[in-house]
Write a structure and sequence with these properties.
Order of helices and strands: HEEEEEEEHEEEEH
Strand content: 25-35%
Distance between the termini: 126 Å
Oligomer: single chain
Number of strands: 11
Shape: elongated
Radius of gyration: 31 Å
Helix content: 10-25%
């Protein structure tokens, strides 16, 4: 007769149980992988948006510092009828008092103008301000002696009544804002009349301007072509700036083309997987506002 030892019999998983366990494990692993890839994709998008915000902030801050000086008439309050250059002729380039140099030392800017670039749907802008003397007394305060590239105007080319140009009001600093596309990259760029062209902010897809014209008690915003047609450059007191910023990398799942209304222009983006965002701001020209109130 067989004795019972009290030790239970140990058996393994059946084939069906094993297969069920594997299927459940695969579902769980798939869910974890999906969460991982979704989180990774979301991190990429958040990183690109953060970089876009920084590029937009940099572009708008730098443009504000450049454009707000348009129309500055020097510490001597010299005559300057227009804050932007939009004439048919090239920028004038008088000889400085020494006779050995000219006012504009970076000659590529001479042919630039404030206008609407209809073909590329990108605006450009050339600011004007009268140059103070770099040798003026330190206590004069608020001197403007350099362009957007820190190119300092020499005393013999400045508005200094003794050392500068014979006609002081001809001593002007020019800054040209535009979008440059070196190697397919789009960058907000500034070219100075005394310094070379350098980028200010990367991945700026499009740039647009509208000009606030003071007409009596009203403010009317027009594009450059309309301001020129109405001969109103002398009455511009504010500038609206619109920029379209794109992400550095293609991070969206599906390529698409989008249409943005950037100020008064409809801008169609390329069909790709980049993120695009529009930003706008209004810049006051304090030197022109003072003039309007005085008149």
């Amino acid at each position: 007769m067989r004795k019972q030892t009290g030790i239970p019999k140990i058996t393994g998983l059946s084939l069906i149980e094993l297969m069920v366990s594997m299927v459940v494990a695969l579902f769980l692993m798939g869910g974890v992988a999906n969460i991982y890839f979704s989180t990774k994709s979301g991190d990429k998008i958040r990183s690109e948006i953060s970089e876009m915000e920084e590029n937009a902030r940099t572009a708008l801050v730098l443009m504000r510092s450049i454009i707000s000086h348009a129309g500055y008439q020097s510490i001597n309050d010299l005559e300057l009828d227009k804050p932007f250059y939009a004439e048919e002729e090239d920028i004038p380039n008088p000889v400085c008092r020494s006779g050995t140099g000219k006012l504009v030392s970076y000659e590529p800017i001479l042919t630039k103008k404030t206008l609407n670039s209809v073909a590329g749907k990108r605006d450009t802008l050339v600011t004007i301000n009268i140059a103070d003397s770099p040798t003026a007394a330190a206590g004069s305060g608020g001197l403007l002696i350099a362009d957007c590239q820190a190119g300092i105007i020499p005393a013999e080319c400045s508005s200094d009544p003794v050392e500068g140009l014979y006609t002081a009001s001809e001593s002007r600093i020019y800054n040209y804002l535009y979008i440059n596309m070196p190697n397919g990259r789009r960058a907000l760029t500034c070219m100075g009349s005394r310094g070379a062209s350098q980028p200010l902010a990367e991945n700026i897809e499009n740039l647009q301007f509208l000009y606030g014209v003071s007409i009596g008690d009203d403010m009317v915003y027009r594009n450059a072509a309309d301001v020129t047609a109405n001969d109103e450059w002398g009455s511009v007191v504010t500038v609206q700036v619109g920029i379209l910023v794109r992400s550095e990398r293609e991070v969206l799942e599906v390529a698409e083309s989008r249409v943005f209304l950037l100020l008064d222009e409809k801008i169609t983006t390329p069909k790709d997987r980049r993120i695009y965002k529009a930003y706008t701001t209004t810049i006051v020209l304090p030197n022109r506002l003072d003039r309007e109130f005085d008149s």
